[in-house]
User: Fold this.
Amino acid sequence: MNTQENILGYEKLPRLLRSFAVPSIIAMLVSSLYNVVDQIFIGQGVGYLGNAATNVSYPLTTICLAIALLIGIGSASRYSLYLGADQKDRAASIVGNGISMMMICGILYAILIEIFQHPLLTAFGATEEIMHYALDYTRITAVGMPFLIITNGISNLARADGSPKYSMTCMLVGAIINTILDPIFIFIFHMGVTGAAIATVTGQFFSCLMALRYIPKFQQVKLKKSHFGVHISQWGANVTLGLSSSLNQLAITLVQVVLNNSLTYYGAMSAYGKDIPLAACGIVMKTNSLLLAVIIGISQGLQPIIGFNYGAKKYDRVRKAYRLAIICDLLISAVGFCMFQFFPRQIISVFGSGDSAYMAFAVRFMRIFLFMILLNGVQMISSNFFAAIGKPLKGMVLSLTRQVLFLIPLLLILPLFWGLDGILFAGPVADFSAFVVTTLLIMKEMKHMRKMPSQA
Assistant:
């Protein structure tokens, strides 16, 4: 039996989740550190206007990650399901088509950024003061977008193949290179945001090379040239299962655009001006991205466990694995909540200094906007859970709840009554509302799963 040959089908769940989630968490943290490290060194070497510039260009990176998740999570989910069903040739075809799709989409996305970068940055909220910084940064980082898509996509497939540590190593190599080069280019060669961008792309290039080296090393399947085709039906199926994770990233991008423009609009009417709220938001969102990286890492580590056991009809293991992941998420989120509420000034100071108005707004932004962060991870893990069991529509609904159905309308409505404060309070209200919807959908799914005939 395939479930007896693959550890996903028989290993104890705490040990299994730890072995898959920890490398995934490290990989996601490393991925987030690309932008956070840039933010820290740019803040120290250029100032808060440089941080504001990287903030308005960051939606391009989140779109890139959305493409990577669309292909990577979709391919990995189908790969796990077919491995669980012991259909290895079909699983190999999924891998080959997924990798081809990553390369083609990565190149097309980079070309589009280079052509339309100025109107895109304007739409993302760039002001006249920071536009030249944003253009310098984006012009170079666009080159690294194909590397980022390929690395993240293959990392998901490697994790589903039973190699979570290799997946982690791919990201770690690039992060180390980026961290070493950032201070050299910014402080020694005085290249500013251009130097930070070159460091980022260099790290991404070497991560991509590491990821490509895994192609002939797949353990569960043997890849052939015939598997690396362009089959639209395969692409469509991969996209369907990766849609919930991708939409979550795209929704984050849309939120960033609305948030940036709202902050500059209402900031201009306040004592803070346009640039302080924009810069403070960038710091808070990048800091929060580290906590979200841990939660996403848990979710990605959970995906092959859920997918394989669901495909093998071991539904009791599916339910227990989900519960274990949620417990881990809540414990980690509790630590994040305490950090954001009790040490915001210390966290913000790491990213450089500013005047008293900047620091006061940034501290207030972090405390209020992230007040319900404890509940945020439940929605993210549950969204990927539905994708892993082959129910992308429910996953898509959950992906849209927090960002699109709740947060964006609140960002547009609440400031009409409370100005900048309305923007701050939109975050916790949206988080709580999404948690309620997620809980209802998960309870219904678990009740249904208990009625399904399960394999021993």
